[in-house]
Amino acid sequence: MNNKFSVSEAELIKQKEYTELVKTVLASRFPESKPKAFVHTYGCQGNVADSEQIKGMLIEMGYELCEDVSQADFILYNTCAIREHAEDRVFGNVGALKKYKKEKPDLVIALCGCMMQQEHIAEKIKKSYPFVSLVFGTHVVHKLPELISKTLTGGKRVFCIEESDGVIAEGLPYSRDSGENAWISIMYGCNNFCSYCIVPHVRGRERSRNPEVILEEAKQLISEGYKKITLLGQNVNSYGKGCDFNVNFAELIRRIDAIEGDYTFDFMTSHPRDCSFELIDVLSESKHFCGHLHLPVQSGNNRILKEMNRHYTREHYLELVNYAKKKIPDVDLTTDIIVGFPNETQEDFDKAIQKRLAQKDREMSEKYKDFVSPDAVATLKEEYEKRIAEATAQIQSVKDSYAEKDAEFKTLTERAEKAEKALL
Hints:
This protein is of the alpha/beta class. The termini are far apart. The protein contains 14 helices and 13 strands.
């Protein structure tokens, strides 16, 4: 077991006691029917899995889940910090909850997730959103019963943002609501520190769950009839690193695939730095692999990859992709790409695109050489280049639009400063 990060048995027992306490309090306040809880999730599948645990704990405490926020006695938003737009949406939606608090003074409004793990965000909530009763970060989800108990009985707002490398809390209940799909978190946190990513700062260091616990969970879900098992982690490829059990991600996949049943498995998210040829070999031999490999490249330019602190090159990425295509001919490959990264020039972008066009040209020529005429291949290439040109034009249009907005904002700021000076 990864004892460094494991929540102690004593702590888990304490939370069970708080669960019973909350249940008693709620039963006295809602004698005729169970109080209703509304949970809304922003962001990634990791947040969805966290929310399923939160829902499971809420049910154990005596709440009944609902889909209508206006009917809720407890409202929780599980937030995401990966994009500024997601944060802006949260602030707007939280502000809209004020009317429900006025209508129902005993309503508990709670916020958790990656946004709340940031100290400045928690402070903003504390100062600007006084109707929010409970705020907690990513490392204390297992303490939810205790936090709700203090919120219900203490008469004060509760803020719990612990600085930590992270924890692993086993044995928490789930309320799964993704149909025939089931999420299994195999690890948490990230050690890569990509220059554009906040995940390591809000999710802590990499920590892997015990493989035997994961396998038991997978067996249970498969026996219950779930058809798609998705293994989750900020960087699943580094599963097992620094642990006292000798199981890496490839070996974990091998063991999961050995479980009998009618199911497929998937996983996310992968990092090219840690994705191994061994893993691809294992996937090529798997009976239950769904065939989808998501491998975020982020950029096709080595200079930009270095700026991003990704720790791999374009050449290494293509080597992995070509090996995957060779070993798994019908593999469904997807990726993520960041365009317009700080310090990325149009020349950087164009070089990456041109290299991709050249590679695509070779692939098409090789793939269709026996049954497609050279003219047809040339037509396909022309169409491909046309679409790339259109996409490039759209990207430039977006860049120009942002530049105009920046200029407008600068002008407005200068006017505001001048007006302020005039008033003084």
